Amino acid sequence: MTTAPTGNPRTYQVRTYGCQMNVHDSERISGLMEQAGYVRAAESDEPDVVVFNTCAVRENADNRLYGNLGHLRPVKDKHPGMQIAVGGCLAQKDRGEIVSRAPWVDVVFGTHNIGSLPALLERARHNSAAEVEILESLEVFPPRCRRAASRRTRDGSRSRWGATTPAPSASSRRCAARRRTAGRARSSPRWRRWSPRACWR
Questions:
Q1: In this structure, are 111 and 174 located in the same domain?
Q2: Each residue's pLDDT tens digit, 104-138
Q3: Choice between 158 and 48, residue whose per-residue pLDDT is larger
Q4: pLDDT of the residue at 185
Q5: CA neighbor of 26 nearest in space, from 37, 9, 45, 13
Q6: N or C: which end of the chain has fewer CB within 10 A?
Q7: How many domains does the chain have?
Q8: What is the pLDDT of residues 51-86, one digit of tens each?
Q9: pLDDT tens by residue, 25-41
Q10: What does the DSSP assignment read for 8-46?
Q11: Which residues, including other chains, have CB under 8 Å from residue 35's CB and lie 6 or more apart?
Q12: CATH of the domain at 80
């Protein structure tokens, strides 16, 4: 995992706009930042990293974001090493346009790239260039999830994406066998002697 530089730990602040889901995502962002070695900044201090978690559905969301980014530009000029990251729904929508309108932004990440934020911040510091990473969806599942998709437990049940489907009982297996037999026997006049509905009694 990417960690903050050694010495005095870098501080961060997350500014959340929008719905309750954004509040949940901001809590996740805070956890990732602290795992990477960052420390939450005090209210009276200027943080080393400011993360905007945006929402695209609220009225004037664009104007609010770019207005706040404009206010941070002189602060960043006076604070060498400060970084600004923009994520959330508006980042997913505007993508590289954010860097075009606010070139002092260091990182733009989408709603599916939250886990990459610490690495993107470190890469932007190292390259002295903005990092924009947007994924449309989680297109590739981790290998562990793929193995879980086809794993069977000891009792014969199948575990799929973390959920376990119980193994069929002996009676349900017999019923399924009868339905298959009935389907094959329908060409024979004798199939009417036994009705598949008996399985559901």
A1: no
A2: 999 999 989 899 999 999 999 999 999 999 987 65
A3: 48
A4: 54
A5: 13
A6: C
A7: 2
A8: 999 988 776 788 889 999 999 999 999 999 999 999
A9: 999 999 999 999 999 99
A10: SPPEEEEEE-SSHHHHHHHHHHHHHHHHTT-EEPPTTSP
A11: 1, 118
A12: 3.40.50.12160
Bridge partners (DSSP) listed for residue 163: 160
In a domain, 164, yes or no: yes
Q: What is the pLDDT of residue 73?
A: 96
Token reading at 91: 């980042």
Domain that holds residue 171: 152-200
Reported as type and span, the H/E element at residue 132 is: strand 131-133
Same domain, 162 and 123: no
Chain centre distance of CA 136 = 11
* Res 83: pLDDT: 97
Could you tell me if 125 and 89 lie in one domain? yes
- In a shared domain, residues 165 and 102: no
Q: Which amino acid is residue 38, in one-letter code? A: Y
Q: What would the two tokens of residue 54 be?
A: 């945006």
Q: Where are the alpha helices (DSSP H) in the chain?
A: 20-35, 61-78, 89-94, 97-101, 117-127, 143-149, 170-185
Distance CA 34, CA 13 (A): 11
| Per-residue confidence (pLDDT) for residue 180, from 0 to 100 | 64
Q: What is the mean pLDDT of the chain?
A: 77
Q: Are residues 30 and 87 in the same domain?
A: yes
